């Protein structure tokens, strides 16, 4: 299957309508459903354009409606804070007047090296990606009945290290973009957020015993260091809890050198089965 990295990067080139309003094109998907990871990546980019010279250090997103991937999405940015070190922005994504998503992003100016205290969890000891077999970018890709419908998921390649089925369904995977990505720190952070959102669904499905009707409710990323997208990255994932039709998934991502890139969390909703007479 051909890579869609070029198409994804094209949709990351948002149209700036005015200083605080942007428009982004979407990608084909089953049932014309906009992927949460894609739209949240676009929202982070829109916010970043209003905070030049500052790197994203966190983003918290709530997904409210699925949207229609055949239509563009408007991203309205609101300035919540402009301090000496931090900038905070709210982004509202709308389509045909309806709110699809709300995101809060924070950006930061780097502190002097002398003021830093650095620590992180160790990177898991796993086999190198070159020793592992190819797998599809997403579990949905294994379905041959949907050719051409998952373009929004074909921009990266990955290797699965392991995959436990029972709770908390710990699993690890190597991943990298399926091609060259421009050297842009905000674009890099946006692609990291995109990847984490679409792959954190898997441990939640595994812990609950299989794929079912579900929707993403919220997604959060804390960025610790820039990702090196020219090499493989390791994402360790799990689903530590499920209650009241909600499942939480979490993950940590590392550069191959062992540097912690980000910490991610995502919650999914699994609606109860309905009986029809």
From TrEMBL:
Keywords (alphabetical) are: Hydrolase
Q: Which CDD domains match?
A: Thioesterase_II_repeat1, Thioesterase_II_repeat2
A Gene Ontology molecular function term for this protein is:
fatty acyl-CoA hydrolase activity
Return one Gene Ontology term, BP aspect.
fatty acid catabolic process
Q: Which residues form the Acyl-CoA thioesterase-like N-terminal HotDog domain?
A: 31-107
**Transport in keyword set:** no
An example Pfam family from this entry, by short name, is Acyl_CoA_thio
Keyword Acetylation in record: no
Name the InterPro entries on file: Acyl-CoA_hotdog (IPR042171), Acyl_CoA_thio (IPR003703), HotDog_dom_sf (IPR029069), TesB_ACOT8-like_N (IPR049449), TesB_C (IPR025652)
All residue ranges annotated as the Acyl-CoA thioesterase 2 C-terminal domain in the record: 172-267
Gene3D superfamilies referenced in this protein's UniProt entry, alphabetically: Acyl-CoA thioesterase, double hotdog domain
Family per record: Belongs to the C/M/P thioester hydrolase family.
Name under which the protein is recorded: Acyl-CoA thioesterase II
Name the species this protein comes from: Mycobacterium asiaticum
